[in-house]
């Protein structure tokens, strides 16, 4: 976690300028004047990275965020914002349409169109940032979806996902699977937008994308189970094995290769960590779903060009070197 700003650590006279500067950087040059110039400004902003995605949470006294047409041209955005109102009620204006967002409401908005976003009193919002290039959906489809989110059956799932990531952000962002969770977030965001959009073809694609997202999340939670098979995965999602493979093929996604890669990456990170030095290589392999140590060593060497034992030894030397330099 990185604390972008905590005004409790600043003199009151400097807080308004600090909030403006932090919000301008975080929200693509959006100007943020205080709600009341004479009022005390209070804000805490935090950010967690999950691969190419991130979670940004802000809790602050009443503010007004304005993104003008001039700023959208001079500072185009490369991300899509999926924001959940955590505390208070906010108002969002874009393209002549005003939306009132109460606690628990989800807002997906296009940062490349002018808007105004505000709340009064103490409020808090948590936002998932997804790169538009990763999302891979047309801009008009995204804009259309933003006005009809509640029509999507994925709406509540997305809200729960963003809030869940925020509640456990410290542990999740430090986990070796943080980047994989970012991938799941991208797929869920893509499914939400496609589902909410008016285009029926994208709706059909969204249902498949959502199911595949759920499958990946399920697999991620059960990587340590060496008996994890396509049949078990399919049964957990009430589909046939044939349909499971059809979903994966449609997304150009090899289920077997992905599971193996995730397990190897998890084992590799654990072998490099100080907290696992008391575990044998066989124990680490078993914790990541490899019941046969010899098979694990062979797959590890094929993937990374080094044996698990040599990797652990190399990582240990790096730790010693870092400790020595910090004490020098």
From TrEMBL:
Parts forming coiled coils? none
Gene Ontology molecular function: DNA-binding transcription factor activity; sequence-specific DNA binding
Q: Where is the HTH araC/xylS-type domain?
A: 213-314
The record's listing under Pfam families reads:
AraC_binding_2, HTH_18
Entries under PROSITE patterns matching the protein:
HTH_ARAC_FAMILY_1, HTH_ARAC_FAMILY_2
Q: Which keywords does UniProt give here?
A: DNA-binding, Transcription, Transcription regulation
The record, for InterPro entries, names: AraC-bd_2, AraC_XylS_family_regulators, Homeodomain-like_sf, HTH_AraC, HTH_AraC-typ_CS, Tscrpt_reg_AraC-type_HTH
Question: Which PANTHER family did the record assign?
Answer: ARAC SUBFAMILY (PTHR46796:SF6), HTH-TYPE TRANSCRIPTIONAL ACTIVATOR RHAS-RELATED (PTHR46796)
Q: Name it.
A: AraC family transcriptional regulator
Species source reads Mycolicibacterium sphagni
